[in-house]
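BUG: 3D viewer hangs when loading the predicted structure for this chain

Environment: internal workstation, default settings.
Expected: structure renders.
Actual: progress bar stalls at 90%.

Input used:
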Amino acid sequence: MASITNRPLGAGFNVVRALSNLVAQVAAWNDARVTRKALSSLSNRELDDLGLCRGDIDDIAAGRNYR
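Structure tokens produced before the viewer hung:
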């Protein structure tokens, strides 16, 4: 027979959550890096075709609404 307890989650859960947050932050940083690199490699004409300028690249990579 199974037993149900109402004990709080232990320190192990906190470690897993912290590690999960770290992995998510690294993934977000890498996504921003890849986006910044891809947009930076475009010519000014190509950026203009997308309706962007070089000054928009950092905002877009950071996920901020640039307009």
